């Protein structure tokens, strides 16, 4: 009755309709297209008697994978489709040689993941900036990120994030030109960076809070399609900076993992995730 198949760019509209039914809100088609550019071969769709019913995806970073966008259409929920999708995507990940999986779980989804062996590591907190909040400006020492900066930027980011995610940094620079900033010290070394998507800040990493704050100010000098949001790890020092700029916490998810040990990451330098899908 349940059939799991890989899907590609040709299925974007169907996948988007599933996600809007499962999660509500806006279309995620452009995000899906970006994710498939970053990782084209780890996306699955579930069918119930031939009808599209659910989907899930994963991005493999080498030491670990990140699962996201696991959703079941409201017409097909409570039929075991979510469990089948999770088991199937875990098989895909393991077949690719990765045994450590991370995800950010809603309270609705967390019990399923716990049943599958996922453990709580921390929280992922979502902040929004109300529309009437004061915007900031670009300070001295802050410069735009260019494609020529990507090798150095990926090298800076790797020990902080815990894996090489140049593909993510490149994809977001391509999709949001002129909306990424970095900071260098007097010796010319990168000390932090931030990406400003059309409605979200991140990825965002910095070695020191004062650098992170200067980058945040630069990002907030831009225009956004809606009230900008940030997803931060709960062990990040970003909460204080965001509150001082007028951001408000609106949602919390459980950051969970499946594997023998959580990866080595410099959480004190991680200020904002790219998304719930990408970490």
Brief characterization of the structure:
The chain is an alpha+beta fold and 279 residues long. The chain has eight helices and 13 strands. The chain has two domains: 2-99, Gcn5-related N-acetyltransferase (GNAT) (Aminopeptidase, 3-Layer(aba) Sandwich); 127-254 and 261-272, 3-Layer(aba) Sandwich (Aminopeptidase), CATH 3.40.630.90.
Describe what this molecule looks like in 3D.
The chain is of the alpha+beta class. It has two domains: 2-99, Aminopeptidase (3-Layer(aba) Sandwich), CATH 3.40.630; 127-254 and 261-272, Aminopeptidase. The protein contains eight helices and 13 strands. The chain has helices at 12-23, 29-38, 81-95, 110-115, 150-161, 166-175, 209-219, 238-244, and strands spanning 2-6, 43-48, 51-60, 65-72, 101-105, 119-128, 142-144, 180-184, 190-196, 200-206, 229-233, 248-258, 270-272. Strands 1, 2, 3, 4, 5, 6, 7, 8, 9, 10, 11, 12 and 13 form a 13-stranded mixed β-sheet that branches. It is globular. The relative contact order is 0.16.
- Protein structure class: alpha+beta
How big a fraction of the residues is strand?
25-35%
Second-tier CATH architecture of the largest domain: 3-Layer(aba) Sandwich
- The CATH class of the largest domain turns out to be Alpha Beta
Helix count from the secondary structure assignment: 8
Cα(first) to Cα(last) distance is: 33 Å
The level of helicity is: 25-40%
- Please mark out the parts with pLDDT under 50 across 5 or more consecutive residues, or reply none: none
Q: What value does the average pLDDT take?
A: 95
Order of helices and strands: EHHEEEHEHEEHHEEEHEHEE
Rg, rounded, reads 19 Å
Number of strands: 13
Q: In one word, what is the shape?
A: globular
Q: In the CATH scheme, what's the topology name of the largest domain?
A: Aminopeptidase
Number of domains: 2
Biggest sheet, in brief?
Answer: 13 strands, mixed
């Amino acid at each position: 009755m349940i059939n799991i198949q890989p899907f590609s760019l040709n299925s974007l509209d169907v996948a988007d309709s599933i996600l809007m039914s499962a999660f509500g809100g806006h279309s995620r088609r452009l995000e899906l297209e970006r994710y498939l550019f970053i990782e084209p071969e780890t996306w699955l769709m579930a069918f119930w008697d031939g009808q599209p019913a659910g989907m899930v995806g994963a991005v493999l970073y080498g030491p670990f994978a990140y699962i996201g966008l696991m959703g079941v259409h409201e017409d097909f929920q409570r039929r075991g489709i979510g469990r089948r999708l999770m088991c199937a995507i875990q098989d895909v990940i393991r077949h690719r040689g990765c045994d450590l999986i991370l995800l950010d779980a809603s309270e609705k989804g967390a019990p399923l993941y716990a049943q599958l062996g996922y453990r709580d590591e921390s929280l992922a907190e979502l902040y929004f900036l109300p529309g009437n909040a004061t915007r900031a400006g670009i300070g001295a020492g802050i410069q735009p990120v260019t494609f020529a900066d990507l090798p150095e930027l990926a090298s800076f980011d790797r020990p902080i994030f815990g894996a090489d995610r140049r593909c993510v940094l490149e994809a977001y620079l391509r999709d949001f030109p002129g909306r990424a900033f970095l900071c260098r010290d007097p010796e010319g070394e990168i000390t932090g960076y931030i990406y400003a998507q059309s409605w979200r800040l991140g990825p965002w990493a910095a070695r020191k809070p004062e650098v992170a704050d200067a980058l945040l100010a630069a990002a907030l000098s831009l225009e956004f399609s809606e009230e900008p949001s940030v997803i931060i790890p709960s062990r990040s020092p970003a909460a204080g900076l965001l509150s001082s700029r007028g951001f408000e916490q609106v949602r919390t998810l459980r950051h969970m993992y499946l594997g023998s040990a959580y990866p080595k990451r410099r959480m004190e330098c991680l200020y904002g995730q790219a998304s719930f899908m990408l970490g």
